[in-house]
Design a protein that fits this description.
- Helix content is 29%, strand content 26%.
- By secondary structure, the chain is α+β, with helices and mostly antiparallel strands.
- It has a single domain, classed as Gcn5-related N-acetyltransferase (GNAT) (Aminopeptidase), CATH 3.40.630.30.
- Strands 1, 2, 3, 4, 5, 6, 7 and 8 form an eight-stranded mixed sheet that branches.
- Strand 7 and strand 8 form a beta hairpin.
- The longest helix has 15 residues.
- The chain starts with 8 loop residues before the first helix and ends with a strand.
- About 3% of the residues have low confidence.
- This is N-acetyltransferase domain-containing protein.
- InterPro entries: Acyl_CoA_acyltransferase.
- It comes from Actinocatenispora rupis.
Length: 241
C-alpha cells in the first residue's frame, strides 16, 4: 500500500510499536527538516506500508529518486544529502534513474520475521515500476552504536566466520545481493543546544568535549561556550541488484 493512501501512517510509524527503532536526536538534522515537506509532497508515490488484516501497520519504508551515473564516487553524501539532491533535481526538471532507499522499518515485536527484506524488495520493485533502474541505500548498521569509537570504514570490514558482515542489517542487505560501496561520512548532521542534547540522551554534559551517547554512531561534540552540540553520523552505501 502506498503510504500516501493512509493519512495515519506517519503517526503509526512514530508510535510505540516503531519508536524504539529511532533515537530522538535522529529527528534533529536541520537540513533534513527543511526538505522533509517537499520530499513527502514530491515522492509519496515511493513510500510503502505493509499492513495486516486489521489495517495495522506492520512495516513501512520510503525512498527518494535521484539521477546518478553509477559511479560510487559521485553518490550524494548520505541520507540528508540524498534528500536535498532529489528535491533539487525534481525542481530543476531532471529525470531520475536511481532509488535511494532511506528506511525500511519493521514494528518492534515483528522483527526477525523477514518483513524488512519484504519491504526492501517492495520498495525496489515499486521504484522499478517508475523507471528507476538502480537502487542504493545509506544503511544505518544496527550494531554500530556498540562501537562508537570505531571508524565506520573499519566497522564495515568486520565479518563473521562465514564471510558475511558482522552487522545484522548490513548482512540483510548483502544477503539480498547488495554490494557495499563505501562510507557516507556525513550522512546526517544533528544539532541542538546543550540542554536539548541532555534531554535527548538523558546525560549531563558539564564540559565542552566529545561524549559517547546512547544509540549514536560516533561521539557528540559539545561546545558549552556556543551552547551547541553536534553529531555527525556516518552511514554505509550499498547498491542492490
Amino acid at each position: 500500500m502506498v503510504c500516501g493512501e493512509r493519512p495515519d501512517c506517519a503517526e503509526q510509524m512514530r508510535g510505540p510499536g516503531f519508536a524504539g527503532g529511532w533515537p530522538e536526536f535522529i529527528f534533529h538534522d536541520p537540513t533534513a527538516k527543511r526538505y522533509s515537506a517537499r520530499r513527502a509532497e514530491y515522492f509519496g508515490h515511493l513510500d510503502l506500508l505493509l499492513v495486516d488484516e486489521d489495517d495495522r501497520v506492520l512495516a513501512g519504508g520510503w525512498g527518494v529518486p535521484v539521477r546518478w551515473n553509477g559511479d560510487p564516487a559521485t553518490l550524494p553524501g548520505g541520507y540528508t544529502p540524498a534528500n536535498v539532491l532529489a528535491v533539487e533535481q525534481y525542481e530543476a526538471g531532471e529525470v531520475p534513474d536511481t532509488l535511494v532507499v532511506q528506511a525500511a522499518q519493521v514494528r518492534g515485536d515483528l522483527r526477525g520475521r523477514g518483513l524488512a527484506e519484504a519491504m526492501l524488495t517492495g520498495l525496489i520493485e515499486t521504484a522499478a515500476g517508475h523507471g528507476l533502474t538502480r537502487a542504493v541505500a545509506p544503511v544505518r548498521p544496527t550494531l554500530k552504536p556498540k562501537y562508537p569509537l570505531t571508524p565506520m570504514a573499519r566497522f564495515v570490514t568486520w565479518t563473521r566466520d562465514d564471510g558475511l558482515p558482522l552487522d545484522p542489517w548490513l548482512r540483510t542487505h548483502v544477503g539480498m545481493g547488495a554490494r557495499i560501496l563505501g562510507v557516507a561520512e556525513r550522512s546526517m548532521v544533528m544539532t541542538g543546544t546543550v540542554a536539548e542534547w541532555e534531554s535527548w540522551t538523558g546525560l549531563a554534559f558539564p564540559d565542552s568535549g566529545d561524549y559517547v551517547v546512547p544509540d549514536a554512531f560516533a561521539p557528540v561534540r559539545i561546545d558549552r561556550a556556543a551552547d551547541r552540540g553536534e553529531l555527525v553520523e556516518p552511514n554505509v552505501w550499498v547498491r542492490h541488484r
